[in-house]
Every structure is written in structure tokens, then in C-alpha cells.
Amino acid sequence: MTDTTVTRTPEVPVRERADVRRQVRLVVTLGLALALLLWFAVVIDDPTVSYVLGERVTREFQPQPFNGAIVSWAAVAVTGAALALAAVNRFPKGWLGGLLMVLVGLSFYLAFLVWAYADQTGSFSAAIANPIPGTIRVATPLVLGALAGCLCERAGVINIAIEGQFLAGAFFSSIFASVAYSSLVFIPVALCAPFGMLGGVLAGVLIAALLGLFALRYQVNQVVLGVVLTAFASGLTAFLLGQIPGDRKAELNDPEILQEIRIPGLADIPVLGEALFNQTILVYLMYASVALVTFLLFQTRWGLRVRAVGEHPKAADTVGIKVNRVRWQAVLLGGVFAGLGGAYYTVGSTGAFDRDVSAGTGFIALAAVIMGRWHPVGAAFAAVFFGFMLNLKTQLGFVDKLPTDLLGAAPYLATLIAVAGFVGRVRPPAADGVPYVKS
Amino acid sequence: MSEQTTAPKAEKEPEEQAPARARDLTSWLPTLVDSIAAVVLALVVGAVLIVFSTPRVIESLSYVFSYPLDFFEYALVAVWDGYRALFTGSMGSLGAWERTLERAAPLVCAGLGVSLAFRSGLFNIGAQGQMLLGALVAGYIGFSWDLPVGLHALVALAGALVAGGLWGAMAGVLKARTGAHEVITTIMLNYVGRFVMLYFLGKEALQRPDSDNLLSPPPADSARFPELGSLHIGVLLAVLAALAVWWLLERSTLGFEMRAVGANPDASRTAGMSVAKVYVLAMTLAGVLAGLAATMQVLGKGDSLTDQVAGTVGFDAITVALLGRATPLGTVLAGLLFGALSAGGLAMQGAAGVPPELAQVLQALIVLFVAAPALVRGIFRIRGKGEGSGVMATGWGA
User: Fold this and answer.
1) Which of A52, A367, B132, B365 is 20–30 Å from A273 (CA)?
2) Of the candidates B268, B373, B371, B331, which has an alpha carbon nearest to the alpha carbon of residue B117?
3) Which pTM does this prediction carry?
């Protein structure tokens, strides 16, 4: 069919099928979004909703009412405009297109919130709260775990054991912090929780050492290894937890938790400041880690070596890079970040370790690595996206319009849609998971 | 993944060459020796954990220099008691064997699903979600429909297979159509499956009238699997499933395509096979097998539906498949071992006060040591050149 078109009117440019499919997908997605947005806008009876700038209603942050209809119709307008552009195939490409998609996503999110919070019949009127503080908190371990995954996999070692590293890190940071507190001789109280993080790091590195030992020294299949190490860490921490007698629980598994540290100046920025710069030291370490890992991987000689042994170990070996040594270094350094991520689940949030306290989030961090295409910044953004969705689920728990269970599935459904619709085929480092044997 | 860097073991696919049949028999022996040595090593590490989890032994450590014999005596007794309970609780009597088999059956079925996907180059972490969906449908048909004995169980079974298969197929279709990585999609579908289960459990139709918890009525007697002696027929179904998977992989055209795609999707595409079809079918069949595993819990054991109805079977199935090196026979044996450890673990807790988590640690250690023959051979000074560890996909696939 295209053939005949070409021969008759050669001046009509022939478009590739992939390009057409991209357009169709865009039009369908935006069309569905527009239909939903119209529905959101139309079904609202009383468009007055209230919002607070803080994470919850406090004396400082009082709910402010506003007319949600403006937001709903603005979202319809933005999405409609994007749909029109896509329909005539004038949707911008590159960063401008990305920006437009973000804008559409943001307006969809806001209009959805307006719909969800309008016409509340509950006993108290819920207010739309600032999602950023919660997002950052939930995302912290995910980002750290994803960084561990990035480091390992860029060096060619598959790390499915992030969950295991989380569990070991969480357990030992709780133990370290509790023991530090109950034997006050050595450490001031304020440093007990940070001392616990040290325990988390050690435990994360320990699991990483097992990963390195079996993957690099004994060349065990790394997918097998990761699953097994996770099962091992889960079983071992549960076993050890069972060994703590009830009367010594306060001594061994009841840590001080990390206190929020307010960064003066930065924390006074409206809306964002409080959320980003009044957090625990773990969160600040997370920010720094993203920058550090990106710098290490892409700006240093060591990073070049890491990427070389992950892509083409033979070539790296030929120019004199010790393949397995570099891999060991990357795996162990990854253990530091994963251990810190594990520390979040005890000293960073709730305190005492409980069985399987990280509840499978290590696997979400793994998904973030793949979604972020094995790039630390991409993985961090993917992790923040997860954190945002998980936090949204918690915040919308008060809204009676949505069935709680389907809402619970939303973060995972959103990931499925994101991965299937927008991320698509990804390419791992070429030698990821392949042991290097010198021939 | 790129061939030039692959370890030498990757090209050793014993079943690819016909004359290798005779060699297969002799190559069994070192594998068997390795596996037994791995189990022994895991038990040794487990013994250390038992020793340090027994209060009496810890107390005797405080005076170990004045009465060293006490420590050794108590330690030996603790280990002996623990492992004797593990053995008698899993294989010591007819009842113990039944418990072992009943626990092994769902592990084998779900493990076969993971193996099948593995051989097709797919890392299926989604057995848990597929089981939940299978359990949901089997349970619903089981307690709410009114059908004659026999037919009822068959319909419920079929429903579970279809539901599990559809849930698995979703990951396959996403992979084939959009290239979405199956590790991500199956993890996400596990979570979604759990919330689907919770959503339906909250509905009037699935709620047990006398309970406030999210709990369904148990399946009707007419929907339960018939029993042979005191063992339900699901165990037989697991064996049949293993035979079917063996036939599919080793004797059928589709199985050949699956193995080819698993070994090298690009070459298979060049050879004219439809990689997309293989991905979708492999994930569908994996889901069907996970659905079958779910029926063991619901129609076999007669569990009511909760969001915990699949237990940890879906995740243990991954370990079972990996321990069984993704072959049907290996998966059956690994499933039996895990069933025995799980049944024996409970007995160990009851009789010797050893925490049941020890069984989980033992399982992990066994797989770890089986996967690292070089380590085990080094420790036990076994001579001879062992095979490499893995036959499965070495990388993420593309």
C-alpha cells in the first residue's frame, strides 16, 4: 500500500512504521487521559477542595479552600492541546516533548486529586497535602538500593540480592544502635542511631562480599545467587531475631531513631524547603550518594574501568585492567549503599527490626535500576517515582471515594504502564551476569 | 549474551547431542556427589546455628575452660536432637512422608512453571501472583458453585489453570509486544495480584459469614481433590505435570523452540521461529503450572482464601527451580527436598525447640553450595573436574 503511494506521489514523505506506531500510541494514551479528565471535571458536584502546604494539618499549616474546577478544566485544556499536537503529528520531540509529557502528567495528577478530594462524605474533611516529604522518605531506601544495583550491574555483576542487603542492613543497624545505647560508655546518645547506620553498612557489605565470593570466585549463576542470598538473609535475620529473648529486647532491638536535621536557609524555601532539607542524615546521604555514584561512574578513571569490565571484560583485560578486582570493588561499594538503605527500615524510620521489615522493596529497587536503564540518575528518578506512588497510596487512604485495595495496587500498575508504554526495551550492560574467565 | 566472554560451561548443553545419552549416565555421578556434599555442608553450618541457639550450650560456654566436656556434650545433644527431629518429621513415618509430599506438591508445580520459563530465557518471579489468581478462582468456584462431586473439582481446577495462565500471559504479552522486562512486570503483577485478592475478599460474595477477617468459606467437599489413603490426588497431578513438562521440553517442537529461544533469541528469530510466540506461551504455561500449585492449597489441603493462601510457595518455587537446574526431574527432587525440610522444620521446632527459620536458612545454604561445586569440592577434597554451576540464562536477556 505504501508502495503505490510512493510511486504515484513521490513528494509525500514516507513515514517509518515505528514512527506511526509511536504516534498512534501517543494519541491513544492522551485520548484516554483526556476522557478521564473530562469525567473527573464533570462528575464533581461541589468543586471546593482544601489544601495544606505541609505534610499534614498542623497549627502552622491550616487547610486553605480553593475552587478545584479551575484545576480540572486547566488539566483538560493542557491534555487537549497535547492531544491535538499529537493528532496532527506535531508533538515536539526531545526535551520539549518530555517537558510537555511531564506537564500533562502533573495536570492529570492535580485534576485527579481534585476529583478524589471533592464531595467528601467522610466525618472530617480531608485536605490535599504536600506529597514531597513523604515521597522523599519512602524513596530514600529505594534510591540507595538502586544505586547499589547500578554499581554492581555496571561492573557486570547482577545484583538481585538488594532485598537481602536491606534486611541484613536493617537488622544489624538496629542491633548496633541498640547496643550502643545500652552500653552508654562509648557513645553519646545522639550518635547511637548514626552508629547503627555503621552496622547497616557493615551488614550490607557482608552480603555484598558473599555475592562477590560466589559470583566472582566460584562463578555461580548470579540470578540464582541473588535469589538465594535474599532467602538466606531473610531466614538468618528472622532466626537471629528469634534468638533475642523477650527480656533483652530493649537492650538489643529497640534503637534510637535518627533525628531530623534542619538545614538553615535551604529549609526556609516555601513548599520544597521543609520537605527536602528538614530530613534525617540518611536522606542527605542519599542525595550525596546519587551525585557521588554518578561522578564515580562517569567522571573518574575507576568508573571508566567499572563500565569497561561490565561491557567488554576481555577488552578491559587486554589493556591491563584486573577485571575481577574492579568487579569486587564495585560490588563491595554497592554493599555500602544497600546497607545504608537497609538502615532506613530500622533506625531511619520505625525503630525495632521486624521479620522481613523491608517487605520486598529491594525488588522494587531492582525494578528501578532496570527502569532507569542502569544509570544512577535514571534509577534515582525511577525510585523517586515509586516513592511518590507509594506515598500517594498512603495519603489517599483517608479518601472514601477510592477502594483501598485497588488504590494499593496503583503504584504497581503505574509501573507496569510506565515500563510497558514508555520505557520499553532496555539494554543491560553487555557482560552483565557473565563471569569472566581468563583464557 | 555475548558468546566470546561466556564461561566454557555455557556451550555445554548435554541434551543437544544425541550420542551424549550414554555419557549422561556417568555424568550423573559427580553431580550427585556434589549435591550430597552440598547438603552435608549446609547441615554442618546449620549445626553451628543450632548449637548457638540452644540456651544450655551458651551457658556451658561460660565455664568451657573448667568443664570443656559439658559444652561438647550439650552441643552434640542439641544437634543430634534437632536433626533427628528434622529427619523423623519429614521421612520417619508414613504420616511424615505424607506431610512431606503434601508440602512438596505445590512447590514442584510452581517450580516447574519457573523452570519452563527459565528454559525459554525468561526469569519468572511471578509464580506468587499467578498462584493467588489461581487460588482466587479455584476457591470461588469451590465454595459458591453447586456441582456434582468430581465435576466440581474439575471445573474449579480448570478455572484455576485458566486464571493462573492469564496472569502469567500478561507478563509474556508485555514482554513480546513492548519489550518490558519480565523481572519488573512479574514483580509488579505479584503485588497487583495480592491487591486483586484483597479487593475480592472484601466483597460480600467471598466473605465468610461468621468471620470479621478477610477470609472466605472453605471449598465445598464436592470440590475437594479425592484422596488416596490420606494423601490427596494433587500429589499425583504434580507428578503428571512434571512428566508433561519433560515431554514438552524434550520431545515436542514447541519445547525445542523454547530451548532455542532460551539459548539465543536472535539466532532463533533468524531461523524463523517466532520469539514473541514462545515468550507468550512460556509465560502462559508457567502461569498454568502456578495455578495448578494453587489448587493444591485450596482444593487439596482445603484452605480458605486469604491473601496469605499461597504462603511463600511462589517465591520458594524460584529456589526449587534453580536448585533443580531448571529440569523437570531436578525440580521434582528439589521440591521433595524442600518439602521435607519444611515438614521437618516444624517437627524440629516442636521436638527440639529449634526455630523453624532454620529450615529456611538450610534451604538457602543448600542451593548456594549446590550452585558452587568448586567450593564444595575444595572443602571436601573431592577430585575430578565438576561441571559448571548454571545451565540457565547467564544474563538479563535482552
Assistant:
1) A367
2) B331
3) 0.83
